[in-house]
Amino acid sequence: MPSFRKDRVSELLLQAISEIVVLKIKDPRVQGVTITEVRMSGDLKSASVYFSSLTDGKGEDHKKGLENAAGFIRRQLRSELDLKYIPELSFFYDTSFDNFSRIDRLLKQLEPKSEDEC
Predict the structure, then answer these.
(1) In this structure, what CATH number is given to the domain that contains residue 13?
(2) How distant, in Å, are the alpha carbons of 2, 27, 58 from that of 53?
(3) Ramachandran region of residue 83, left (φ > 0), alpha (ψ -120 to 50) or beta?
(4) pLDDT digits (tens, 9 = 90+) for 14-61
(5) Which of 46, 49, 61, 74 is deepest in the core (most CB within 10 A)?
(6) What totals of helices (H) and strands (E) does the chain contain, helices first?
(7) How many CB atoms lie within 10 A of CB 88?
(8) Would 93 be classed as within a structural domain?
(9) How many domains is the chain built from?
(10) What pTM, to 2 d.p., does this model score?
């Protein structure tokens, strides 16, 4: 299957799931979650949904909340999108923002001191 189809479905799901999470899910474990990426399987029957959060250390709580709401999210997707199959959703915490923050902090430690500070 051409990859542009997977990319289009991924982007469509990213927008729809983001909207559902922000506007329709009332579970406090899901509050503050941002959907960062959706990766589709080759047959478009399963999707890996990556999320991040500004609250540190609550990735597992957020994941449990999203997994608990997976059925609700799929029902909402079924009513909102015109897809032959609504994919099974798997949720994963996106560590790229944490990694970026850690690398940025390390780089700031390596910055040379100005002559005024010496």
Answers:
(1) 3.30.300.20
(2) 32, 15, 8
(3) beta
(4) 999 999 999 999 999 998 899 999 999 999 999 999 999 877 677 889
(5) 49
(6) 4, 3
(7) 12
(8) yes
(9) 1
(10) 0.80
